[in-house]
Amino acid sequence: MISCTRVDLGLLLLRLGTGGVLAAHGAQKLFGWFGGHGIEGTGQFMESVGYRPGKASATAAGLAEAGGGTLLALGLATPAAGAAAAGAMSGAAAVHAPNGFFNASGGYEYAASLALAATGIAITGPGRLSLDHALGHAVNRGWMLPITFGVTAAATAAVIGARVRQLQKDAEGDQEPLFEE
């Protein structure tokens, strides 16, 4: 019998809630479930906001959300799951940042909250009511945190940087010359 504390129960609820929301968002992107647009529609949206190629971007975001969310909910490979989810939500926050903070105005509040929750779970650990605990924390070691978050931060920075360059290039192409030559 597993003895658990309030902290273990709180972490279980936080993992189930955060992981469930992330997994559902990923399923929208990947499969069109829950009112989503699937790879095709999400890929078109990704293209429109500067993430190119769109289908590949939709697939990567969907896998990070669905996979990271499912693993967080299960409490399995918690450092990698938290990093994947945080990276995906950072990419989403970059899209919403021009609209300010609050979600009501289209801002990044929601994406940032999910990223912070996933990061907090990864740092704290999944608790005793988790697959990581049941498996002796074989894929939840302290040294995994800096590696998974370092790799994710580098990849996320590269992807967001490429998006910014693409948006700048698109904006320059839309400008009309002041004088005809």
Structure summarized in a few sentences:
By secondary structure, this protein is mainly alpha-helical.
Let me know the largest β-sheet: none
Shape: elongated
Percent of residues in helices comes to over 70%
Number of domains: 1
How much of the sequence lies in strands comes to under 5%
SS element count, helices: 7
Instruction: Please tell me how large the radius of gyration is.
Output: 18 Å
Write down the overall mean pLDDT. Answer: 94
What order do the helices and strands follow?
HHHHHHH
**Spatial gap, N to C terminus:** 81 Å
Structure explained in plain terms:
The protein is an all-alpha fold and 181 residues long. It has one domain (6-173). Helices cover 71% and strands 0% of the residues. The chain has helices at residues 6-31, 38-48, 54-74, 78-96, 109-124, 131-134, 144-174. The chain is elongated. The mean pLDDT is 94.
SSE inventory with pairings:
Layout: H1 6-31, H2 38-48, H3 54-74, H4 78-96, H5 109-124, H6 131-134, H7 144-174
Keywords:
elongated, mainly alpha
